[in-house]
Amino acid sequence: MRCDQLGDVLSEAAEGNRVLDKSARRHVEQCLRCQAEVVQYRRLLKALRAMRTEVLEPSPGLLPEILAAIEEAGERSALRSLLSGRRVAYIGGIAAATAAAAGGAIVIATRSRKRLRLAS
Amino acid sequence: MPVEVADLVAAAQAGDRQAFDELVRVTYADTYTLAYRLTGDEEDAQDVVQEAYLRAFRGLKRFRGDAQFSTWMYRITANCASTYLGKRSRHRHDELSEELAVSDERESANPELRAETGALRDRLQVALRALPPRLRAVVVLRDIYDLPHEAIAAELGISESAAKVRLHRARRKLREDLFSIPGDVGEAHAM
Fold first, then answer.
1. Predicted pLDDT of residue A106
2. Number of domains into which chain B is organized
3. CB contact under 8 A, A67 and B139
4. Contacts of B124 (CB under 8 A, 6+ apart)
5. Which residues pair with B190 in a beta bridge?
6. pLDDT, tens digit, for every residue of A5-18?
7. B34 inside domain
8. Based on the number of CB atoms within 10 Å of its own CB, is B74 exposed (0-12), middle (13-18) or buried (19 or more)?
9. Dmax over Cα atoms in chain B, in whole Å?
10. ipTM score of the complex?
11. How many Å lie between the alpha carbon of A91 and the closest alpha carbon of chain B?
12. How far apart are CA B22 and CA B38, in angstroms?
């Protein structure tokens, strides 16, 4: 086996996510170069994980900007729900008025027919 | 999830705006750190953070609490950074090319770069910033923030296998940058 045949196996082995198969393990046990690579990957991964606890200092203006953007989004959302509520009320009103008009028309038409019958 | 954050999330989900503002106060530096690591630029990071919190605000009711709030924010931030960098690359064609490094414009970072202390941590930060953004995103999300491959792939809009390939390329590049001895790179030998 050659070093380049191991591909990405060494970084996965260093991560602890992969157990080397027999031939790969035999190669690494005899190859100083691959052993060094595994050690380097372990150091790299350890250093990367350590970065998790580091927090960068944002510029002082960032927090007010975020809060203002959320405020604006909140107001827009409230306005939208208000408008959609009104829209529902308008549509309901129009529907009620239409129904009333239709009912009125039916009543008038019925009375007119009765009057015509009586007249005849 | 820390009790304080969990309480704030619950209150914010119930419609308490002040609780959401407090949630932002408690978490925004951490979110900014991730955004900066993904974009490599202070202004871009600020835009990404703002968009991430807007999305979190709109989608908070969908957060079910089966993951930590911070993990949920990381996923949103990763998605926003990916979208942001994607849009920027369409406007400035070469911005996200695989081979192009994003330079660090932060003033606070320059003395660090110049000093070149030789400490692994400092050299790692330099090597990370020199990675192409597409490779950097995957290694940052996996090896620093411990997101699973599946989540990384979903938020970056790539397949899980593509995410793994990028991760290995990024690790290899970082290892070579940090540890390689000149003239030693790529000399495989048989055993």
1. 86
2. 1
3. no
4. A44, A47, A48, A51, B174, B178
5. A2
6. 787 888 888 888 77
7. yes
8. buried
9. 65
10. 0.77
11. 27
12. 25
Strand partners, A100: none
Q: What pLDDT was estimated at residue B4?
A: 86
Helices (H) then strands (E): counts for chain A: 4, 0
Contacts of B46 in chain A (CB under 8 A): 58-59, 62, 65
Q: Cβ contacts of residue A86 below 8 Å, gap of 6+?
A: none
* CB-neighbour burial class of residue B5 (10 A; exposed 0-12, middle 13-18, buried 19+): middle
Q: Which two tokens stand for residue A11?
A: 């970084």
Q: How many interface pairs between A and B have CB atoms less than 8 angstroms apart?
A: 107
With CA atoms as reference, the chain A residue closest to B146 would be A49
What does the pLDDT look like over A47-76, one tens digit per residue? 999 999 999 999 999 999 999 999 998 777
- Residue B52 sits in a domain of what CATH number? 1.10.1740.10
Task: Report if residue B187 sits inside a domain.
Answer: no
Residues of chain B whose pLDDT is less than 50? 93-107, 113-118, 185-191
Match 């990763």 to its residue by tokens. B78
Instruction: Identify the helix (H) or strand (E) that includes residue B36.
Output: helix B17-39
